Known about the structure:
CATH architecture of the domain at 319-513 in chain A: 3-Layer(aba) Sandwich
Strand order of the largest sheet of chain A: 16-15-21-20-19-17-18
Number of domains of chain B: 3
Strand content of chain A: 15-25%
Low-confidence stretches of chain B: 430-441
Low-confidence stretches of chain A: 8-14
Structural class of chain A: alpha/beta
Oligomer: heterodimer
CATH class of the largest domain in chain B: Alpha Beta
Largest interface: A-B, 35 and 34 residues
Largest sheet of chain B: 5 strands, mixed
Number of helices of chain B: 17
CATH topology of the largest domain in chain B: Rossmann fold
CATH class of the domain at 319-513 in chain A: Alpha Beta
Shape of chain A: elongated
Number of helices of chain A: 13
Order of helices and strands of chain B: HHHHEHHEHEHEHHEEHEEHEHHHHHEE
Strand content of chain B: 5-15%
Radius of gyration of chain B: 22 Å
Amino acid sequence: MPSSGPNTEISKTENGLNYCSTRGPAIQPQGPEAKPLPKITIDGSVIEFMPGDTIMQAAERANVAADIPRYCYHPGLPIAGTCRMCTVEVEKAPKLMTSCSTPAGDGMVVHTRSEKVMKSRTGVMEFLLTNHPLDCPVCDKAGECELQDYNYEYGPGTSRFVEEKRVFKEATTKNLSDKIVLNMNRCVHCERCVRFTDDVTKTNDLVMLNRGWKKELAATDEQRGLWNDYQGCLTDFCPVGALTWSDFRFEKRVWFLRKDTSICDRCSKGCNIEVHSEKEVVYRYLPLFNEKVNGHWICDEGRASHNSIMDPARVVAPMVRPEGGQKPMATSWETLVVDVKKHLKNSKKVLFLVGTDATNEEVQTIKSQASRLANQVELLAYNGTPGINSGKDNKPLDHLLRQSDKTPNTRGVENAGLKIWDGRDNHGADLVIYYRCGRAGAQVIQSIPIILWGVWNDQESKKYNNLVALIPGLATQEKDGSYTNCDGITQNFKMAVKHRGLGLSVNKVFELIS
Amino acid sequence: MSNLVITKHLHEKDSQKLEQYLLHQGYKAAEKALTTMTGEQVVDEVKKSNLRGRGGAGFPTGMKWSFMPKDNKKPKYLVCNADEGEPGTFKDRLILTKNPHAMIEGMLIASHAIGSNVGYVYIRGEFHKEARVLQEAILEARKAGHLGKNIYGTNHHFDIFIYKGAGAYICGEETALLNSLEGKRGEPRLKPPFPAQVGAYGMPSCVNNVETFAAVPFILREGAPAFAAMGTEKSGGTRLFCVSGHVERPGVYELPLTISLRELIDHCGGVRGGRKLKAVIPGGASAPMLRADEIDVKMDFDSLAKAGTMAGSGGVIVMDETVCIVEAASVLLRFYEHESCGQCSQCREGSHWLARMFHRIENGSGTEQDLNFISEICGNMAGQTICAFADAVTGPALSSIRKFRAEFEAHVKQGCCPLKPKHTHVNHTVDKGTGRGASHA
């Protein structure tokens, strides 16, 4: 079984880019008649590249591409060659060449920082800034803005533009959908967004209207707005603050955010994410490049899921139903432990359900410890996504990332030897313990007492009339562990944020109650 | 005049009709090429004639045809660029309305040379009448067997279809034209790959101008040497010059390329009313202007390039002493501001900036500093973009400031146009509703 962690080798911050720009080293051809790889010299360093690479892609192989500024180029999108920011000087070429689109040639000598190149970049920066509103103090992108960063590096410093700036009155703040807000005045017309909807999501829901300096971004269907499921990615690669994620607007200045890597638990794909938090409050998830799993993207459902950790309705304190009481009440761990122990002792047979969102490590712990809880323990897994009764039932929902299995570790739980419970048969048990991390379904079992454990929210726990206790646990981003995704790839992850409630890890809880 | 290639019989009634065209050995050249010559022989003949593309860039036509792949694995497309939009140019519409069969015959010969079975005529959106005349001509030719299957009993099939543009100047650029033909945004493509490898619908394509095609039948009929002899050493044949502006008799003139600009103006009756000449744009709006003392230059591609301008599309705009050069340049730049496709940063923002700056200077609110900026802005634009549009913008901007700087300085010093009384403030506004420019004097 292949095992790997989230792609932590190249972090965005180290690269100086808002997205990961990585292409592995060129693969040496095998076989007796294999020709040696072609080589290109970029700023004095000799780089081997794969035939067909452009200069930029060759630079990515040696991890020196971040030195070349770019707006329209993105490693996950088709090449446009329109921003003219990535021009480099190629020896023996009469003009400056765009490194994103010029094919690398064997023996080519490239200078990315010659005087001519720097002058051209300053020129481009000056042009791009002529009509830019320069509203960085109120722009959410400030701090991670490519226009800002490159302006510090290449910009002219002062402006000679004294004409009236272009203003798109209607598109100064325009909702393209309930998730995306457009500010057209900030746009630098790199058209990454248009190419993304054309070639990655293939939904064609963004277009450029008009031409020249009046070119304006709009939803193809103004009434419907954007309809692709990866709209958040538009805001990731938008080099300026033209496209912003409505949930993050005016929430936090980006330089306060701590960046940790984790795995998204919204479906069985296991996309790599970067958790952005301040003081253990999660503000957003961004995709983290992993060629084997999610490439450059994550879906909107996953991106919006940062809200669930911070959900005010999440139960983060132990709860028990008092003797003869109507409602479960919050209590201390001491009371809970006494109560749970009493229920376990009185039980003849316990049905222990493990949600398919438990990490591989938690499943192992439960497997080894569960039998000590009561006289007889039946251990089963539970998924709860309609139509998913095993890992094999998972179907991709589109050609990109989204999967029909909405739990992250069905394959891992199955690999540990647990059968998936059908949701009906009680197996003769007189007590149910259900452990899950917030993703597996909330199956209502009315006939026998139930102990809920893990990540639950108020509304869900209220459905259980026979709830006797609730043991708070940790969500995916709050613990270490590993998930095995729908393709069988096991990925380790570390704690991204500290749990802010009274929840405890599975190991700790077993120490207390057994 | 016996040495006319395209306009020889245009004065005759119904010259656009097939029967009239057939009276003057029409389609004989195509028949000869298809029945007695191979494709390579046709290409060689065109190469020998020194025919150069009449669209603006002046690329040798025979060489362009020889770049087309020889194998027959993929379909190849022949495209005629009839998106004549260069300000000051109106030669193609003359051919399309008065001599469309010359162009059709030229396309037929070209299709044989490059091995193509389908031809598209990308015609400018505003050319309604021209498109109608051309469509009638195509129908006539199809009916008479000059287009269709097994033309002249050979195994060559060829047919022509008209595609109407939507009125964008940039679609005259060949790769933007191909994008538009495919139904995409009319934006120039990155090159390489060139259209000869990846053109219309991803297939090898050859794009030529209307006038280029119309000259081909003459070459095959009269022989390459006869055509080459009419021009200079490197550029054969005659050329249609579209003379507009302040001459006595503006119009389209077919003249040999050996003529000089001064002779051309005299040929059109000289500057109107005997006034003094001020400036000439010799090859469509994109060509840098020439001063009155620079007009002793031959009108072929190389001589004009040596004079620091270009032969371009053959649109000669003559301006006499009543013209304010700043206003003329401002009007041209407003055109470019409106027509930039907006892909490349420099062109999109630069054309806008220059247009605004010239407009300001024209209205007397320019500064000495602005005049120095112009050449720097142009320097940051020229040669840095995907297509040659940015270079075209710098043509009128740079040449006007370099050659008529005194006039710009007068605008700055006097705070108004020296040629006009102060109260006739020229207000070039852009109509918000239509996006079109409107001039209010």
